[in-house]
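Two folds, back to back.
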Amino acid sequence: MLERIIVLTALEVEYNAVYHYLTELETDEHDSGTDFEIGTMPGCPWRVAMAELGPGNLGAAVVATQAIGRYSPRAVLMVGIAGSLVPDKVKQGDVVIGTKTYWYHSAKHDHERILARPDSWPSSHRLLQRAMTVVRRRPWGEAGFEVHRKPIASGEVVLNSAQTPLSLQLRSTYNDAVAIEMESAGLSKAAHAFKVDTLTIRGISDLADGHKHDADAAGWQKVAAENAATVARWLISNLDTTVTQISDYIGRPPPESLDRLRQRVDRFVTGVEEVSNEMGAMSLSMAATRLGELRDRILEDLTDVEKHLGPVEPEQDVTRRAALSSLRRDVRGIVGGLADAAVRAKAPTLPGRVSQLYSP
């Protein structure tokens, strides 16, 4: 099973903007009923799992927890639209990559005062670094929008005025935030609890100035969502050398577990040959017992190897993960299908799969 990137959106317009880039789609229903659509982005050595969760931080936290628990992803991205808190600098159609997320509703109301008790979560350093590289290169060309790397304010309010108490509070207490939205605090809370890299990418659809209805009617939601999806698409395509839950090194010699795996696979192949020669003299249960313990040790080795392999180029990474998947499937299948000579004949191919796990 290839590793996954999770992309969460709140609204249909946001979902459709990212969905446009996916191919080879399949649907996976979580036990709770949440539907995840899983597809491939061109040039990516992993699958992208998406869900549309509706507005609000509570829903974002719940669905993010479901996705992380189900897929153990390399990264979780929130992609969608937001309002600008600094309309003179961050304009409609621009994209904001959140350096941190403020949960601005954390406060104490005392008579006529609002005493802020800020909570915040920094975005993943790895994702931000790669986002900075991608933005400098602008692989999307001259698309007519700017990309800003600034904090984002997240709460439970659709802000559509520059003069409300909330607007004043944001300008005084969260004055470095440039965009406001309703999901990233929930996502960040869940991702940090599970120690998963996370990042928010938001296109600006309105200026939070009392004219949101006009901006929406003019189609700015669609423009903002598509711009955010464009940046997310290129970021995902360039994650291979930055985000990894395996290791941060390149070119490190294969671990001892890889050599142990090779030796055990060689013994397994020899054992299958011996069983094949003696099939008339022993029962299938006896043959399976003889190879079963070695099969179990090989499966343990595969898990250990997967944890320690260093990252390589995307094409090589796809080959290695396919080899891991094939080894797991074939070792189990051979032991379970010893009565079939064609199944037993797969055994000599296993050492070749092991060789594909070595770093070049």
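---
second:
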Amino acid sequence: MSVTAHPWIARLIRDYRAKSPGVQLTLEMNDFGQLTDAVRDHTLDVALLRGRTAEIPGLTSYTVVEEKLMAALPATHPLAGVGPIDLAQLADEDFLLISRSAGPNVYDIIIAACREAGFSPRIVQEVPAFPPLLNLVGAGLGVGVVPDSLRSMGLDSVRLLDLKGGHDKAPIVLVYRSNEGATAVRDLVAQARRAAATP
């Protein structure tokens, strides 16, 4: 999903590599369930997931970033040049949404935000990750709701607008085994927790 687009992740990796140069880091992208299963099964040591996680037996989760949600509109959309908008202004639009299997928590956050704004989104397509979702928005297939860090994609065909009304955040959560014994993993978790606490 869009987790790797957030600059906090790049800083964490860079700082950890500087402090632990002998540790090899391998990144893997997958959907929510496969990543949590891989951590539980010792295939992966940690996972960074989008959205709040329910308690998962044997795993600990810790929110490292709280990120606001933005409206993603084609650059040609009538609202594209407007400042912050109410989500309700998109009630009659076709919506592109991250698939529930890829990100069940952030999917639920977006659906809940739409319902709180007084409508159920008319979903025309679900997409497995946020970057291709933005490409489809840019192609004019619909609108979307995406995390703020997607600004880094810098697509000329898409406008990201602030949403009024304090809609829920799309947090990034670090997930790791509760009984983790490996020093390298414990060090990464500790560094992520320290970095999350730093303003």
